[in-house]
Fold each of these.
Amino acid sequence: MAASWCLVPRAWCLVLWLGLGVWGVPGAEAQTARPDLSGIWQRAGGGPGLTADEPPMTAWGLEKYKAAKPIHGPRTVSPAESNAAELRCLPMGIPGIYFRPRTFEIMQMASRTVMLFEVDHMWREIFMDGRPFPDVPLGTWMGYSIGRYEGDALVVETRQFRGWDETMHRWLDRLGHPFSDDLKVTERFRRTAPDTMVNEITIDDPIAYTRPWTATMTYRLRPKGFEMGEFICNELMLSELPDMRPR
């Protein structure tokens, strides 16, 4: 079989064929060694906050936190009174989008990993090609993400977010914890069981918090054949749920 495609003597063909079987093509070992995180996932349990403890806020962070009017947690207000960005159909960013009770899909490729969110049909591109962050701040809703594999973990660093301002309250979670344009989020995704993925999230925002702090989220894999549904935020806000409409 080897000689049918080989243009060098049969002995060398056999060596080449066996070599490809053992060592593979360049880079193949690194690709097959990466953790498999593909599939459709959904957050499993947990409350409306990233942590049970209050994160270490700066004076700026505490001021913005007190200005928040969330619809979850101990400071709950009605949806009509809330200033949550999600009730205005604005993107929640990372990690805020994980708090919506909706699924997301992870698709892994050689040069990038893509996350497709059912919420607002948002997509997140994680570049895996070793590029640096752009020199010019982009101020994006979902941030600019660069990833790498470390053992059994996918490590993703995200920067260049569009942070807090007076007209749109975008928070790290559903309790109203703010973030600024200087936010850096580092995530470590690990598959700890066939149907379980854990995400260790480190928040580093010197404007909003006095030091970096870490939280953990757990996700469950949806059954084979599960399909994500259509999600139209404006239709939800303006049709059958008048109490959800912000004033």
Note: Residues 24 and 55 are 48 Å apart (CA to CA).
Amino acid sequence: MDLKRRYEQFKLENPKVRIREAADQLQVSEGELLATGIGENVVRLRSDFKELLHELHTLGRVMALTRNQQIVHERKGVYENAQTDLPHGMALFVNPDIDLRIFTRSWHHGFAATFENPSGTLQSIQIFDQDGSAIHKIYLTPDSNIAAYKELVEKFRSDDQSPLLHVSAKPGKQPDLPDDDIDIAGFRNEWEGLKDTHDFFPLLKKFKLGRHQALRLADERFAREIPVGSFKYALESARDREVPIMVFVGNDGIIQIHTGKVENVLEARGWYNVMDEAFNLHIDQENVGSAFVVRKPTEDGTVTSLELFNKAGKDIALFFGKRKPGIPEREDWRKLVADLERELTE
């Protein structure tokens, strides 16, 4: 039985299961399942993604969705101010609402998809990696420009409308070096001399460290492991104290950022959620593996973050107080994190 027929049978038997979970159960990628709808409710798009990014503003207010295996980040806004002529296949959207760091080298497949659900017609643009895993999705809202969406789909429609998606495995990640092979003293010394948060990644590369490994080996003044559920305290405290925060969630192809306050926080069926009008966050609590408070020296003073990792040691979310380069960190965020450490570790 071909994949399209298998999927149709699966949907008849499991009408409430979402496509991502269906792909897991059918042991294929989400992109391959979506492609089975080409010719019906799905259109394959050309891979001119940089050009596409510059056209997204025409859609008006939409919902941007980025996720990894453990966390889903949803933010409503307009895709304004696209920047694509950047080194290493980078692209940016820097706006108060749609704030993205894009790695276009991982953008391999694009689709426009229309689905019917109990609340009506759901129209979207969806981007996938070479292995068929979802990178980024854009959903129209009642405030979006439907005519512009239709024009965009026609403009970027690929000549190839085959319902098959050819996927390939992504290169495996290099394992961390053994701790004994790391110049820990040199690493700690250079961390203490950091001038900018953007210098942290080059520091990891210089000493050949994974991010989780680096936090384990850091001086406790700068990185400290805390209870895994600390994100709940942080989000609830940010809500109660009205502290504006930044929430970074990403995967191999994109990082999506929310900046602002959080208001509606709740637990449901194992997920921990922010459910605000413009921002939703969904954390699969069972699969968060570890958490650290991290402090980086900068020319503007110390910058403090709460960093979450999955059980394999992959970073899945970063939380900061709202800030911009050149401006010192907010004291209310700094106090919130200090209170978190005292409350949860003493």
Note: The longest strand covers residues 134-144.
